[in-house]
# Entry
Amino acid sequence: MLLDAIDILFTTGFWVAAIRIASPLIFATMGELICERAGVLNLGIEGIMTVGAFAGWITVYAGGDLWTGVLIAALAGSMFGLLHGVLTVPLGLSQHVTGIGITLLATSLTYFTYRVALADSTSPPKIEPFQPYPVPGLSEIPFVGEILFTQTPLTYLAFIIVAVVAWVLYRTPLGLAVRAAGENPVAVEAQGISVTGIRVGAVMVGSALMAVGGAFLTMSAFNSFFFEMINGRGWICIALVVFGSWRPGKALIGAILFAAFDAYQVRLQQVTGGVIPYQIFLMLPYVLSIVALIVVARRATYPKALMVPYQKGER
Amino acid sequence: MASNQNGAAVLSLSNITKIFGPLVANDAISFSLQQGEVIALLGENGAGKTTLMNILFGHYVADEGTVTAFGRELPKGDPQAALDAGIGMVHQHFTLAENMTVLENIALGTQGLFAVRFNRAKARDRIIGHAKDFGLAVDPNAQITDLSVGERQRVEILKALYRDARVLILDEPTAVLTPLETEALFKTLKMLVAKGLSIIFISHKLQEVMAVSDRVLVLRGGKMVGEEVTASTDRKALASLMVGEDIAPPKIEQPKTGKTVFELNNVSAVGQGTGSSLQGVSLQLKAGEITGLAGVSGNGQAALAALIAGTLSPSTGSVSINGAEIGNWSPRVALANKIGRIPEDRHAVGMIGDMSVTENVVSERYLSGRFSRFGFLNWGAARKFAEDIIRDFDVKCPSPEARVRLLSGGNMQKLILGRAFDGNPQVILANQPTRGLDVGAVSYVHEQLLKARARGASILLISEDLDEVMTLSDQIIVMSKGRLSSPTKRGERTIAELGELMAGHGFTASANSVSEVATDAA
Amino acid sequence: MRLEPKPAPTLAITLAYPAMAILVTFIIAAILVMIAGAAPLQVFGLVLKGAVGSQFALVETLTRATPLIFTGLAIAVAFRAKLWNIGAEAQLYAGAVMTVLLGTGAIAAPAAVLIPIIIAGAMLAGALLLLGPAILKTRFGVDEVVTTLLLNFIFLLFVSLLLEGPLKDPMGLGWPQSERVVSEARLPRVIQGKRLHFGFILAIICAIGVWLIMAKSVLGYEMRAVGHNPEAARFAGIPVNRVLVKTALLSGGLAALAGVSEVAGLKGNLTLDISPGFGYTGIVVAMLAFLNPLGVILSAIFVAGIFVGADAMSRSAGVPSYISDVMVATALLSMVTAIMLTRFRIRWR
# Structure
């Protein structure tokens, strides 16, 4: 049994699944990372992912193509980001309470809309989701190529997004402004850039990514929308941002490690054959998140202005 | 510096008025700045200097009046316009993001926000060029965290120059500098003027104003009360313009020095989060004396204050009170040993803004039988205590139920004095007790400290204001890099000597020599 | 734009903005109702009728309000000290599990003894569940928002494990549910034959007790000081970490009572769906009450009324009952905005 448990780690199927499971987390973690780097905690993540999952899926169900669905999901997410941004940045409301409120609102609005739009259907209709697209050439590289390059286009997009976020944050003037806004907003305002603009913009873009993360679930991982399908993934992403020390690369590694663990526990359940209650396995990802937080909390260098509202002319 | 009254005005403010509720912060202020000129804007705290500069910079919008730069009126409430017009500002509290490099801080916002790539090389060349031209040596790749205060100020100046500033405004630039660094700053300013820049120098320190400016504008209570050519005025005239009335300097009687009541023996400690630390510090505070602690802020004063207040425990060394060593050290133990504490930051640490006057004044002794029983508070007694303080310390507030946030800084400080002085403490920690207060409140605080001294309290006065320290203190100690100099009696060291010590020179003084001097004095 | 603090707001303003917040909530709900193809006024009428239109409706609303008062109090207490307890859901289940452990025959005692034991045991369980995140926060600096949120998922899985294992009812036809608690463990009914049970009275008593603690006690004073300004509190000698731990114990204990109330008062046994998110709704209840413990009673009844009324309405008018969740979330956001506006004035220049 022990050997079986270790063998899993060397199967391509396991790693392909891990990358698939990581994809929505990567989108949402990058989204949260952008928000927090600009100084805004976004606890709306869980609800915004729900919105994205629904919006992308319903668009396709209504006849739109898959990429239109992704776009609509991103737009819907950014609208909730706008609401969160306006309430917490210029109005300076508690980021905790507002974030929870956004999650409650986004989730309930989604469920309401679902019921209104699909009043007659007893089980959620299915769509034709993104199909795996083996990248010519690359996917033929043994093991690594099979794992990384036989995924769906949306997974490739997730990895591209990490590179883009890293580039923007560290290599562009905009990224400089975003990082400074999360560190010392006064420095940003003194250089003639609007802190409000930067922060609200970051929350909108971040929320759009969260929504795409949600959409991955309905449009790539599965082919339908279920209630409660986000199932705490948003909260896990918040932990992943901390675990990744607010750096895109580290957060990416965190997301993949986490997903590998998640994929592993599912297979381990099969190997152990019901000796250990399945709930224990399901708990592990959440427990792991908490453990990860404890490990990094002491030495975490978080953005200094995170959760600190900024008012013009005040110092 | 050469006066240049006849050149073109590079900047002019006309009729600027700004009203906050009942307060007229700026009342029809007009002046203009000529090219190559240094104007000093002189005034007490609360005279309206900072408001005026915030208007000039578009952070506030004036209710009336206009700002014209190089012949063009600036749009209101637009910081970018002020920057574009060539106005640069060096704030009193630096506006730097600490986890970023010098280069990043300087270039922030100078390249198109949506450019695909931040052009680091271009920024570096330009910074190095400016640094060379103006003699402002600084490493573009250094993290701000690693820089000294003087270096950070240079970065602030470079930030303005990088944007081609032709007018530079410096808000209380010397407050955080050692006398040596101040000298260097003045040299830099001279060089800037020689290159054609114009400067507004905001200060409340007379000798600096006299040293650096061509013209002095005096603000008081939001009004411009005087405009003098520096060469034809003197400190005394400016002082009376600035204060408006002759406030008699405090009358200081001979100290009735008693026994040592508070003692630190070779204490080391690291303050949380501040990076402020103490390295083998020994200190003796005697009854009936004011000990003044001079030094540039950020040299361990915060840690020393936290230690005396009880919020920081020594990692090595010991605290003794009345000769007895204290084991567990905490705010409650400090309070129980009759230490009265006036914290540096009254808003963040001294008071809880969203709670009432009553709730705030009992915060240090709500557990005593006087204010609570069986876990429940006696709000009647608490209110009575608040009323006593309001009366005894002449606090202006609508009622004991008023939220403290709505009080002025001076009234807040009076509440803190009332709370700290309750029960006649034997040791008083006064950390920057007059910072940001207007003249009246300053002299009130001084009076109260001297009164406490007269009844035998031992006072440690920590202040950035060297004049304040030299006026009030019976003995003066200088702090630098977490160490204390040997104490000297009133008048034994000149400002220049203190300045040397503040800069960290001549610090052979170890814990031993401190106690030697202390023994001599005893 | 900038925010300027207003001096002490008048009573009219203190009431006007929250009233506007409720109005905004109803306007948004009306738009959604129209999208769903129904007439807003008629729908609101049905909601009102379903919530308070009959004795049955009223009893139902108060019954639904009972757990919300407990979770609302739990949140109000925690948020006062700025301890962000988002884990009331898990603490509720901890109380429910304890009720089943103690109340299904483990202890043979008359009701007058057994019920207090259950209450104490449940409060202890809920308190301990929040103690973990509180210690992680004070000792290691781990953000309690994430830990309490994640604990909700962990604990619900744990309950599922219990209900399919040790606590499973052998007579339950395979359903994941516990045995029924013995009759001595059942909270008596307030009115004979109606669903409203003693839990409601207990909730009122708790609200008054919490109000006394917050307004009059040393602990309440310490909690408010820590919540408003921990640094100043620490300077004044208030033991901030200890106060946070005490707050956590009180908050967790109160949330657990919602579990007792649902199991011992209403359902009789534990299932995985005894709480349709009472723990999260408690946040809304507490915010609508401005964190005032006595206000929590009113806001819990208001929120419960919307839920109960919307359920009844959706059966007859065909508008999804999720409208109530939307309204509750909207009320939360508009109310926090309203509270801000009573204290600050927006200046656009």
